[in-house]
Amino acid sequence: MKANNYLKIFSGIIVCLLAISGWRFYTSSPLLTQKDKMIIDSLFEETKPQCIGRYTIDVPISFNNQLNDFIFIDEFKMESKFIYPPAFKQRIELREKELNDAINQPQNEMQNAPFIKESIQLPDNKGIIFDRNISGEDDLSRMLEAHIYVDNIAFIITTKILDLSDPKYSERKKIYINAGFSEFDMNTKPARLAQMKSLISRLSGRINDTIIPTEKGICIPNGFIADDSNVHKNRISYTYENDDLIFGLETDDTILGSDDTLLNRSPGIYGALLKSNQRTIKKGELLLGKIPAQEWLISGAQKLHGQGDPFPSYNFILFANESIASYQQPWLSFGMDNNSKKSRYNQAQMVEIWDRIVGSLRYKPNAF
């Protein structure tokens, strides 16, 4: 699933946040009937653990993460996918041909040839790193693009670099020097390449995403990155979608705690909810194990593509560690909605699904 779909998935969360600037109005949570409970018990009859960053949750066995390209580690963007070795080999061959041919595209000038500046083979047939141009840009600004195959998982890692070492950029280099750039700043390739190789060395695949690593480090879709002695910036998202709902999570350990919490963003929601014909199902503070959290569950009505009879809409959101967020207590958000989906689940069932997944939140073993 591509990033634009990720934005769609979290559109309900964003709408909810725009509305949720606060409102001290409470409505009672719906009661779960015996029939409702049987339906949800059936959904959760078999669950599986899922590791997201340094957290673990339990989801129904039928839930599968569909977002594999929203992984940001320091200055690197990553994506992951299970493929067989022949397919990985073919992927590299096709990509190399595509990049070599790119110089002939009208947006690329021959003075920036070759399009691939360097191909770096990784040991043990682990993959390759392309130092390549960026289409439509001068070749002082380039991309390191790594294709890695480990434990039956193919990873793509990209990062942007600046390289003014070519003599043709001598005049432009003077401008950078006058702006206060150092020699290190004007050629970021060596440092960024070393960082990329370090990241690759700590990377392993997880073909079975129900196996939770016990080593110190972070889980990413289809993979795991072991900790080293450095502090890294990690932002990771997962999304589970079916015909009834979309459930998403995001963790970001660069966000620091503050008083700007979900429940403190309260003034003004009364009018916003009335205007949008939505209401609060429940909201409040939770303690999930040792993890403090705040949630807000909203219901309303929607029409499919703005047409037809209205049907229920649900937008649930939760923030964990929001007031105390740090590297050791990473910020985490949950969101669940049924935007453009005529869910078979009623309000009580949707709340129960939410409560069961949210209630399973915990840190992974050896999280730190």
UniProtKB/TrEMBL annotation:
Transmembrane segments: 7-26
Residue span(s) of domain Tle cognate immunity protein 4 N-terminal: 48-206
Domain of life: Bacteria
Pfam families registered for this protein in UniProt: Tli4_C, Tli4_N
Keywords: Membrane, Transmembrane, Transmembrane helix
Annotated Tle cognate immunity protein 4 C-terminal domain residues: 212-366
Protein name, entry field: Tle cognate immunity protein 4 C-terminal domain-containing protein
Lineage, top ranks: Bacteria, Pseudomonadati, Pseudomonadota, Gammaproteobacteria, Enterobacterales
